[in-house]
Every structure is written in C-alpha cells, then in structure tokens.
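About this split. The held-out portion is used to measure sequence recovery: a designer receives only the structure tokens and must propose an amino acid at every position. Recovery is the fraction of positions where the proposal matches the reference. Here is one held-out target exactly as it appears in the evaluation file.
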C-alpha cells in the first residue's frame, strides 16, 4: 500500500464535504462565539474570505504526491552523488489547534539511475504541508513518498519549523523551532553520509 493510498483510506471515514455555504455559516458561528457581529461592515465578507483561504491552506488533500514524482529522467551520465534541495519554505497547519506551522525543509537523495525535476520535490513538500499535520507525520510522509516513487539508494529529510500553537498561545515561547529528520536507505545505514547531509543542511 502506498502512502497516498493509505491517506485515501483514512479520508474515507470523513463525512461528505460540506457545501461552501455551510462552511461560511460555520465561520459566522465562530465569529459570533468570539463575541462579534458577522454582519457588521468589517466582517460581512470575512466568512467568504476565510473559506477561500482554507481552500489554499488545505489544497494538499486534493493532490496526489506520487503523481507529482512520476516523471523521471534517466539521462544523468552516471551521476550517483547527492541531489539536495535546501531551504524549501513550507507553511502547514497544526492538526491540534489549526494554527500555522512555518519553516523550511531540506531534502537530499542518492539517485539510482534516475532523477526527478527539483521543482517536483518542492511540490511534494507543499502537498503534505497543505493538510492538517503534525511535523513528525509530515516528515515521515514526505520522505517515504520520495523513497517509494523514485526508489533511490536513500532519502534524507530535515524540517525546521516554528509552531504558532506554541508561540502565540499556551506557553507562548518565542523564537523556538522544532527540528525533525527522517533517513532511509544509505542515509540510515551510513553515519558519514548522514553527517554530510546535516552539515550541508546547516545543522552541524
């Protein structure tokens, strides 16, 4: 079973998608709950704007990350060293509080006869980021999808992100970021290779 197929199974249990009108009504209810009037001038269009923003924030539910990696190139003249993409900006949302997770991802893989366009790696990050997430789960999903589809000798992934559920509420600790990593194949087995990745990612 692929990661995307597992995602689809998990989503089957979700009830049918509400209409846009129902979604906008839900936003108006929250505005009332917060203590304001959704019909006052400054808030009249807020419900529609929030729903449009959610379509952008959570667009990853409607895209297939495996399809994004399906076009590969085999004319690489025997290149078999690191392919690394650094500092891919990501914006996700915490599944516990639905507030932003903002940071960056660094991806590397050791190709085995074929490579993929680098923009596709960034798109895979976006697809998983644009869902309700924990950073740990997102890290595992991105790395495993690249490993499954490209079948490289190994994948390394590091995500460094700030969670607004920690910086703007709760303990309210500013300047704190969370770092997660996932290594597969050669990166998991070879400490020197893993260290090389971490140095180039700016972590050592």
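Reference sequence for scoring:
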């Amino acid at each position: 079973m692929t990661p995307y197929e597992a995602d689809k199974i998990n989503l089957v249990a979700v009830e049918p998608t509400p209409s846009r009108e129902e979604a906008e009504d839900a936003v108006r209810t929250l505005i009332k709950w917060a203590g304001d009037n959704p019909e006052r001038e400054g808030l009249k269009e807020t419900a529609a704007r929030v729903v449009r923003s959610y379509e952008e924030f959570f667009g990853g539910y409607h895209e297939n990350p495996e399809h994004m990696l399906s076009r590969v190139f085999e004319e690489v003249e025997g290149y078999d060293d690191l392919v690394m993409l650094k500092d891919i900006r990501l914006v996700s949302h915490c599944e516990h509080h639905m507030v932003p997770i903002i940071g960056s991802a660094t991806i590397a893989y050791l190709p085995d006869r074929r490579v993929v366009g680098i923009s596709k790696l960034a798109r895979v990050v976006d697809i998983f980021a644009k869902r309700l997430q924990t950073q740990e789960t997102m890290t595992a999903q991105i790395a495993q999808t690249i490993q499954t589809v490209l079948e490289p000798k190994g994948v390394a992934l590091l995500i460094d992100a700030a969670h607004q559920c920690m910086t703007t509420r709760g303990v309210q600790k500013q300047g704190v970021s969370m770092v997660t990593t996932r290594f597969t194949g050669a990166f998991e087995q070879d400490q020197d290779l893993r260290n090389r990745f971490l140095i180039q990612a700016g972590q050592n």
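Annotator remark: The chain has nine helices and seven strands.
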